[in-house]
């Protein structure tokens, strides 16, 4: 959640937040916001520290790590306000994740559930994953029934709907619109009993928000998941390989990096970590077949994936 910040001549900092310019005190001429997320969290915040440790094991997601801290701080301070008999309004925590596949949206949703469980925000903190087929029925009334059943399963935890924009893709007789209306109603009636996270491509999700006038205001947290850089994708590949006890040969590394650069430059949609995983799993199968035919089972051969195993054409 990066915020443009500019010093003013009046000893204040100008912050652009949610499209609104605000002046805040600049104590001792220090810029407060750029490094506030880098400061060490006090030791008593064990729940946040545990989630941060899990997030730190993930590649990228720097903005998401900041958002997690903000959400934790907001909930924690609200509890402190309640203890001092200060008004603490309960804000809805429904979220929208926007980005291409394979950018960590489901993983982050699961970690948020764990954090909310540790903080007492959600009594279960479990994650229910769903898609269009789990919500949309085949006849009048069936969709509302399926949606109710799904939300019942998610009570006390998080309902995560991937490719949520697909609910609005049908025509006039499609029941996807009924699913959207039903979700909006339950978000209002049970807004503090479960958390709804909708995920999907950025442009499609922006259109999705226009399908029901109540949608936009019910998602106070809209978080973007950017595509991974080439270096981050290679880091993800290394992590996947290490977990499986494989390595890439020198030439295989060069070939994979070159291929990822070409794909990112030429494809409008890209599945990021999922794409890398598919390449590695396919390469492992190809290596197994090669070793079987070569009757070669030395340790170094068993752990090394070679350029030919990747199955990537040099001319792309």
From TrEMBL:
Superkingdom in the source lineage: Bacteria
Molecular functions per Gene Ontology: ATP binding; ATP hydrolysis activity
Domain AAA+ ATPase, residue spans: 91-229
Pfam name, any one: AAA_lid_6
Classification via SUPFAM superfamilies: P-loop containing nucleoside triphosphate hydrolases
Keywords assigned: ATP-binding, Nucleotide-binding
Record's keyword annotation contains Nucleotide-binding: yes
CDD domains: AAA
Family: Belongs to the CbxX/CfxQ family.
Name of the protein described by the UniProt record: Stage V sporulation protein K
Native species: Peribacillus psychrosaccharolyticus
């Amino acid at each position: 959640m990066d915020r443009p910040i500019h010093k003013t001549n009046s000893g204040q900092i100008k912050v652009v937040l949610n499209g609104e310019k605000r002046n805040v005190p600049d104590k001792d001429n220090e810029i407060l916001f750029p490094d506030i997320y880098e400061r060490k969290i006090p030791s008593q915040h064990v729940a946040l520290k545990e989630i941060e440790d899990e997030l730190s094991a993930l590649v990228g997601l720097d903005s998401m790590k900041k958002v997690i801290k903000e959400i934790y701080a907001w909930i924690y301070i609200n509890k402190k306000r309640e203890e001092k008999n200060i008004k603490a309004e309960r804000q809805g925590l429904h979220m929208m994740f926007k980005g291409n596949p394979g950018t960590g949206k489901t993983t982050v949703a699961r970690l948020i559930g764990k954090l909310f469980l540790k903080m007492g925000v959600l009594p279960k903190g479990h994650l229910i994953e769903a898609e269009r087929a789990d919500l949309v029925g085949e006849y009048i009334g069936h969709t509302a029934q399926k949606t109710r059943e799904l939300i019942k399963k998610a009570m006390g935890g998080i309902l995560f709907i991937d490719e949520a924009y697909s609910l609005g893709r049908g025509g006039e007789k499609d029941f996807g619109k009924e699913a959207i209306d039903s979700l909006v109603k339950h978000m209002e009636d049970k807004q503090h009993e479960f958390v709804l996270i909708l995920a999907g491509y950025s442009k499609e999700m922006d259109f999705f928000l226009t399908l029901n006038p109540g949608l936009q205001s019910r998602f106070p947290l809209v978080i973007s998941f950017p595509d991974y850089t080439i270096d981050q994708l290679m880091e993800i590949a290394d992590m996947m390989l290490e977990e499986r006890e494989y390595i890439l040969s020198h030439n295989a590394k060069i070939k994979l990096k070159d291929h990822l650069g070409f794909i990112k430059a030429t494809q409008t949609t890209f599945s990021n970590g999922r794409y890398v995983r598919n390449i590695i799993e396919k390469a492992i199968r190809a290596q197994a077949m090669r070793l079987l035919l070569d009757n070669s089972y030395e340790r170094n051969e068993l752990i090394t994936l070679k350029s030919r195993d990747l199955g990537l054409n040099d001319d792309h």
